[in-house]
Design goal:
Helices cover 68% and strands 0% of the residues. It has 88 residues and is mainly alpha-helical. The protein has one domain.
Length: 88
């Protein structure tokens, strides 16, 4: 599992929470509510811009794998929540 404190898979795929300036915990809750279809669209868009960068392609694939599988996404979101709770 990726370390949620150093990676932001949602940002990597260009997916952002609804609203701006939200508290860290509210941001994670908002991100976890994003439908998988939106994750897939973000992945497709990000792939188009990263075709010449193998490292970025690898990170995109890792992000998509985590966010598109419900159990992995829940675990990742839980890590983000723990990080957000430690910030506030």
């Amino acid at each position: 599992m990726a370390d949620a404190s150093s990676e932001d898979f949602y940002a990597l795929l260009g997916v952002s929470p609804v609203g701006t300036g939200v508290e860290p915990i509210q941001r994670v809750l908002s991100l976890s509510a994003i439908p998988v279809e939106t994750i897939k669209e973000g992945y497709g868009t990000a792939l188009k811009s990263a075709t010449q960068d193998p490292f970025r392609l690898s990170k995109l694939a890792q992000a998509f794998q985590v966010l598109s599988i419900p159990d992995k996404r829940r675990a990742y979101d839980l890590q983000l929540m723990q990080v957000a709770a430690s910030v506030t």
